[in-house]
Amino acid sequence: MNDVVTVTGKSRSGDxxxxxxxxxxxxxxxxxxxxxxxxxxEIPLSLSSxxxxxxxxxxxxxxxxxxxxxxETGDRLSIRGPYGRGYKVNDRKRTLxxxxxxxxxxxxxMMADGLDTALAxxxxxxxxxxxxxxxxxxxxxxxxxxxxSMGFCGNAVQLxxxxxxxxxxxxxxxxxxxxxxxxxxxxxxxxxxxxxMSLERYMKCGCGICGSCMIDDKRVCADGPVFTCGExxxxxxxxxxxxxxxGTRVLFR
Amino acid sequence: xDLRTSVGSLALDNPCILASGIMDETGEGMARVLRAGAxxxxxxxxxxxxxxxxxxxNFIEEEAxxxxxxxxxxxxxxVYAEEMRTAVACGSVIGSVYASSPEEFAELxxxxxxxxxxxxxxxxxxxxxxxxxxxxxxxxxxVKRIVSVVKDAxxxxxxxKLTPNTHILKDIGKAVExxxxxxxxxxxxLRAMKIIPEFGRxxxxxxxxxxxxxxxxxxxxxxxxDLYSTVTIPIVGVGGICSHRDALEYIMAGASAxxxxxxxxxxxxxxxxxxxxLRDFMREYGYPSVKDMVGVAHE
Lengths: 253, 299
Known about the structure:
heterodimer; A: alpha/beta; Rossmann fold; B: eight-stranded parallel barrel; 9 helices; 20% strand
C-alpha cells in the first residue's frame, strides 16, 4: 500500500539531504520505507525521524537520490511501508548507539530518544546534518572523524573502543557501511557485547516476496534490516558478498 | 489423514508447492521455504543470460492483491547452477524457465534436468515481459511446439504454466496435452495496472504488471475447473491461495496440487498452516486422502 505525502521541510549540507513530511504511521527506529516520485526509481530509505513528523536523510550518490534531492517543500512523494524489523532497545542505560557515515541517519531517532550515541564520519563536513540533533541530545554523544577534522581522530570501531575504556555497555545498536559493521561485529563478538545492526542489500519489493535482498537465507527487507549479533554471525555473505539486480552473487573486493 | 498427492509421476508429501517468483532467486531462499513445509518449490523463471528485470518501482501490495512487474530478473541459467545445487540438496525443486523459442526452452529445460530439478515448469504466462511469457503462451500452435520440443529434450516431467489472460485457455490446455505435457499449472498473474492519481501516471515503471493475491482466486478456480473438464493430464492450481479453504477450492475444482506465492507476504508459516487446515478439514468431512477430493466439485 502506498501513501502519497507532501514534503514539509528540506535541509541540505554538502551531498546529504533531508526531507520531512507528515505521515500518520507508527514507525520503529530502524524500519524503512520505499520512496518514489516520477522521474526516479523507487529506493529503500530508513527513516531519520519517527515522531509525528517523519523524515528521510540520504546521500546523493546516483541519479535516483539526485532526483529525490531536487524535491522541495510542497512536492509529493510516494511512500510504501514502514517495512522490516527495527532496533529493539533492551536496556536504555546500557545501550550504545553507533552510526557511521550516512548510516547515522537511521540511528538519529534513538539519539533523539536520549540514548548514548557515537557518530563517526570521514570528515567534519559529513557530520553537519547530524550536529543540530546531537546538540539537542540528552544522552551522551561522541564524535569521530577519519581525518580528525572533528572529535576523536579515527573510525567508528576505534571510537567505540575508546568509549568502552571509560564506560560499560551491554549492547551496541549500529548502522553504517558494511565494512564498518563487519569489524564492529567482530569486536562485539570478541568482547562479549551484544549487538543489533542494520544491513543493506539491493531491494525490489521491500516486503519479503521477491527474494532479491537475500543474505544467506535471510531477507533483509522482511527478516531485517536490523539483525542480531547471532543472526549476523551465521551469515557467510556478511562482509563478503552481495547480490546484483539480476540476483548474481557478487564478491566484495 | 493422508496429505500425500502426486502430479503425474511426481510424488509429493503434501499438496503445497512454492509458486515461481517468490523468494526463489537464490538457493538458500528456496531451501528456507522447503524447511518451512512446502512439498516442493518452483525456482525463479530462468533465461539464457542475466536479466536485471524492470526498474523499480515494480511491486505494490494492497489489502486483497499485489501487483508486480519484476520483469523476470534472474542471473542466467549458467550461474543459476549454484543456486539449484543449494536448493536441490534440501528437497524437490521444479525448475522454471522462460524463453522466446522452442529450442531455447529445450536448452534451458535440459540444464534444469542436469541441475537435479524434479520437473521443469515452462513459463508461458508472464504478463509483463516483451517477447516472453504470455506472448508465446497464448497461441496454441506455439504452445504445442514448445511443449513437444521440450518433451523430446528432457526425461523429467514437463509442466506448462498458463495465463488467464486469454479467452482460449481450454484450447491452450489441449495443446499442452496433445504435445505430451505432463501437467498444466494455472494460473499466472492477470495483466493489470495501478495509477497514482496525485502523479497522474502508472506506478509500475513497466506501466503494466501482473495481479496476484486473493483478488484473483475466483479466476484461478474457474480456470482450473475449465481445464479439468477439458484435459486428462494433472493440473496444479495457483492464484490467491492464503488458507486451506482456498487450497480446497482449487483441489475440488480439479487440482492435484497447489502453489502458494503472494501469501508468503504474511509469513512463511502459510505452508504448515494450510497443511494443518487440510488435515483437520479432511478428518471432519471424511476424506481419507487429498486424492479423494480432487475434482469433486464436478460430480
